[in-house]
């Protein structure tokens, strides 16, 4: 269902530059939740990327397998200490299958939005359910669309401005598709790239889960398990496959 790799080349090469994403205070709460849900079983990460979550989760004692669309991102993972030992299947997380059954399938950092149609996002839930053992969990971390910040009739919403990065979303509220436009200063040169996404509401995700035979067990505002509120910018949701 995906037809283009938007995370190859320079994007993969610079993906780990944001040190805050890999900082212990960012990663540790994620690992705490995922390790608890995995229990004694293995985990499967959709869009495993460069291993920001998989590698520390393995150190916590959870075996991790991955699915990743970008070969360049996978190469970055396999070049890291311990990364070469992780089995990664190159393919679309909505359709690619790997052997075995897992106690946990997880998808972090808004990556469900990389699937740019409702059909593909629903297929991703069905694919997760097909990989789960009975009683297993599917976890998604996803932003909540900030449409309250968008003035009526406007389509552009700036989300970052610094000395080295400008970021702006271009939003179509009819199709729920949007593009994130980035301008980054690297080596004294401004570089631009744009990535397409589809935003999705928590209630819409719950319907996709129901279609896949999963039921909601938890929904938090963040990995620290704070309550979700009307102003929460994101959510962490957990669905379970029936025993």
Structure characterization notes:
This protein has 243 residues and is of the alpha/beta class. Helix content is 25%, strand content 32%. The chain is built from seven helices and eleven strands. The longest helix has 15 residues. 34% of the residues are buried.
Task: Name a few traits of the molecule.
single chain; 243 residues; alpha/beta; 7-stranded mixed sheet; 4-stranded antiparallel sheet; 7 helices; 25% helix; 32% strand; globular
Q: Taking strands numbered 1, 2, ... along the chain, how are they ordered across the largest sheet?
A: 3-2-1-4-5-11-10
Number of extended strands:
11
End-to-end Cα distance, whole Å, is 30 Å
Largest sheet: 7 strands, mixed
List the helices and strands in order: HHHEHEHEEHEEEEEHEE
Radius of gyration: 18 Å
Helix proportion range:
25-40%
* Overall 3D shape: globular
Low-confidence stretches: none
Give the amount of beta strand, in percent.
25-35%
Number of helices, counting only DSSP H or I runs of 4 residues or more: 7
Mean pLDDT score = 94
SS-based class: alpha/beta
Summarize the structure.
This protein is 25% helix and 32% strand. Strand 2, helix 5 (71-78) and strand 3 (88-90) form a beta-alpha-beta unit. The chain is an alpha/beta fold and 243 residues long.
């Amino acid at each position: 269902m995906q037809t283009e790799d938007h995370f190859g080349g320079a994007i993969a090469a610079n993906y780990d530059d944001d040190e805050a994403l890999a900082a212990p205070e960012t990663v540790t709460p994620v690992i705490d939740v995922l390790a608890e849900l995995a229990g004694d079983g293995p985990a499967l990460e959709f869009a495993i990327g460069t291993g920001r979550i998989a590698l520390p989760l393995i150190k916590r004692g959870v075996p991790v397998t991955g699915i990743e669309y970008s070969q360049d991102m996978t190469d970055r993972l396999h070049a890291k200490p311990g990364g070469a030992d992780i089995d990664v299947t190159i393919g679309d997380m909505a359709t690619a299958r790997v052997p075995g059954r897992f106690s946990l399938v997880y998808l972090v950092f808004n990556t469900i939005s990389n699937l740019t149609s409702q059909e593909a996002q629903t297929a991703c839930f069905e694919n997760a359910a097909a990989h789960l053992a009975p009683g297993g969990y599917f976890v998604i971390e996803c932003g909540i669309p900030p449409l309250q910040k968008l003035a009526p009739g406007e389509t552009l919403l700036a989300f970052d401005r610094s000395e080295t990065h400008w970021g702006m979303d271009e939003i179509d509220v009819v199709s729920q598709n949007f593009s994130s436009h980035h301008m980054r200063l690297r080596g004294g040169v401004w570089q631009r790239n744009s990535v397409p996404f589809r935003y999705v509401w928590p209630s819409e995700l719950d319907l996709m889960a129901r279609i896949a035979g999963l039921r909601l067990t938890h929904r938090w505002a963040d990995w620290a398990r704070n309550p979700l509120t009307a102003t929460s910018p994101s959510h962490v949701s957990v669905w379970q496959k029936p025993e």
